[in-house]
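--- STAGE predict ---
source: upstream dedup step, 1 unique chain passed
mode: sequence only
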Amino acid sequence: MPVVERTSFPDEAHLRVDAWVAKYYPDVPKRQLRKWLDEGALRMNGVRCSKGDRIVGGAKYQLMYEPIAAALAPNPSIALDVLYEDDALIAVNKPAALDCQPNRPEETDTLGNALLARWPALEGVGESPLTCGVLHRIDGDTSGMVLVAKTQQVYEQMRAQFAAHTVEKHYRALVCGSVATAMRLEHYLAHNPRCPGRMVDAAVWRDVKRPMRAVTSYRPLHPVKVGALPCTLLDVCIFTGVTHQIRAQLSLAGLPILGDRRYGGQQKQMPFPRHFLHAYTIAFTHPLSNEPKLLKAPLTEDFQRVLGHQPN
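--- STAGE serialize ---
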């Protein structure tokens, strides 16, 4: 039975055990996480932890679990724009309209299926067979950088960097409106209990569960005219990893992303097939060389067209 040992960070103190485990295993279904904990998979110094216990900062935890078995179909028909590859990592420039990972084994039209076709050894890398080594997910209609681990050891090392917030990710976002100054946004976001798949401001919605702190900063790069609509291209940096974080927070700030039908207010009738958000760069410590690494994903052709080929 695999055993993963992890030391909790000081700022994770007092998190519930189930929330802490979910933080490190975002792709494992919640029912599977509950099963692990109910079976005593997580222990601290050999003592079994219950899901409602609180994490002790700086303590060593051992997670013992049986891998989840499932067959995932490779799909060689999906083209991959590979930006970088070495013995540890793969970086891909994902197009819009392509989900990162399947939700069910029978799905075949995702980045994960394409990765598995090109690198069969990715099968089983991650928390579940559906992970295929993908270290961080971006929305289906968000384009750009996706980083993939080639081995389970690299996966664990990189996920620890994400959890410690030492991975720096910058995005390009084309927003509706004119922006002149940089800004830092901080909200507590939560899943909308009345509208699945949408995040809301927990300070306004009082009946939500598990609010999550979201911190985002942005600075304007240059103005863009899309038809008669004044827009601004932003450089966006996220310091946390909450679902739909950038889209929700920019919308709450009155700067919805162009083409965003979910958070864009009156944009539902606009003739854009996607929202214009792109994962542009990622900076981290390489898990093998221990040296700093910066990777960049150039803007996709559709994003460049709507910008009018202006500098990004």
